Amino acid sequence: MTPAIKSIFKSISPFTEEELNFLEPYIKPVVLRKNETLIAEGQICKHIFLVEQGCLRNFYNNDGSDVNLNFTMEGQFFTSFESYANREPSKIIIQAMEKSLVWIINSRAFPKEHEYYTTFSTFIRRLFIRLLLTTEEHHNMMRMNTPAERYEYILKNKPEMIQRIPLTHVASYIGITRETLSRIRSNSY
Amino acid sequence: MTPAIKSIFKSISPFTEEELNFLEPYIKPVVLRKNETLIAEGQICKHIFLVEQGCLRNFYNNDGSDVNLNFTMEGQFFTSFESYANREPSKIIIQAMEKSLVWIINSRAFPKEHEYYTTFSTFIRRLFIRLLLTTEEHHNMMRMNTPAERYEYILKNKPEMIQRIPLTHVASYIGITRETLSRIRSNSY
DNA sequence: CGGGAGTTGTGATATATATCAAAAAATACT
DNA sequence: AGTATTTTTTGATATATATCACAACTCCCG
């Protein structure tokens, strides 16, 4: 567990140094190549993940075409929530968009009887609330705004997304075709 | 706490009879008249609610026009999640569509040190997961389907909604105008 | 029981965005 | 560096749904 990762954990819940050390065995790093799949469609997602370096894409497949739900970058957590919570096959696919370093949190293996369990479960609860508020915010944004406004919103609130992620994927993230996004950007609309 | 309410609680988490009795002081019924507002825009939502009788509507206002997010009926829980979780003013308005009997759960007042706290907090966690999976399911359904398919989905999976809720509101719930819904129903599309 | 508000249906028209097609630009690969 | 692949842009056209206007129906409530 690198210092950077420790401080990300601390930013969610006030862990002591001992508690973080105790977490060590439940956390493992993995390196993903560009376009490598972390969670495939139909697979059961049993972990929560944290990006140390790189960029991941959460999306589902709607007869043939991708629908992007989220992009996760440095310092952010993610999972296939429905699959994780209900222990059912994931509808969501998770893929690295670049070569990425990801930490796998084996949250289910944490011993329930341990004295640190309360701290840990508070952490997990907060994580979930964060994840779900993020998706809810995105959905509301989608429903309240026109395509052009949605693009403006991303530009203003998530500018790193425009710099780093191919516009084709951004377009699907804001629910329009890449052609329409291109026209919005060139001010045709 | 009526037997019906007790059994709804038990369906979420395995409460003992004593635990349910202990909950009593944290739960209060309220009767709402038709169109009465339970949570106004800007108000901080501090409770979780359970419908015993009637029907409630969660919606927000997008310059002048309502956008319906959810309808809650007998046996279902609801809250303004963002407001509750972040203790911030609610963007969502909650209103009774009919005369309704609603139980107010004062979850924040439950004593943290009490021996029943673990059971109670598991219950709350499960409730939240349910609520959030419901909204996520709805959002995904909206993104995957055409207006006609969305109507078919409601007809198949939530038929009571069509029977009980004015079509104007259902239309906004599935993200179309009432005219378009009317045409879908008459098979013009 | 009758009038008025609220709800639903129908028609005509406008418009935003998808779709199809292909060129141009950027990026990755050997 | 030079070719191949991917990404973005531009253009022409189609189409679904919104919008506007108003008629028909439903159902409370006095």
TrEMBL record, chains A, B:
Residues 11-110 form the Cyclic nucleotide-binding domain. This is cAMP-binding domain of CRP or a regulatory subunit of cAMP-dependent protein kinases. It comes from Pedobacter westerhofensis. InterPro entries: cNMP-bd_dom, cNMP-bd_dom_sf, RmlC-like_jellyroll. PROSITE patterns: CNMP_BINDING_3 (PS50042). It holds the Pfam family cNMP_binding.
